[in-house]
Design goal:
This protein is an all-alpha fold. It has one domain. The chain has three helices and no strands. The radius of gyration is 31 Å and the shape is elongated. The chain starts with 5 loop residues before the first helix and ends in a 20-residue tail after the last helix.
Amino acid sequence: MFGIGFAELAVIAFVAVLVLGPDKLPDLARQAARLVRQVRAMANNARDELRDELGPEFADLELSDLDPRKIITKQIQEALDDLDAEEATAKAPKPLMAGERPPYDDEAT
């Protein structure tokens, strides 16, 4: 979490106990938990309002979908899928029969 390992977290907790004291620490932990819940609720509310405003075609919208890197990756993947579909449906020229002359275009040269 945020690049903090267990050892760093233990040092932070130890310093917090020394600075704040063991009697104030539970109250501060409760306040921090309440703040995290409120921020999470506000983020979920903002996401839901955005979905409502955009309409039913964006009902499955996630905020992480608005990341420009993901949008570009999705567009490139769709383009590659379209190319694959076109290649699959393209007709390959039929092989020439024995003694058959290949087509020749006088205007091509």
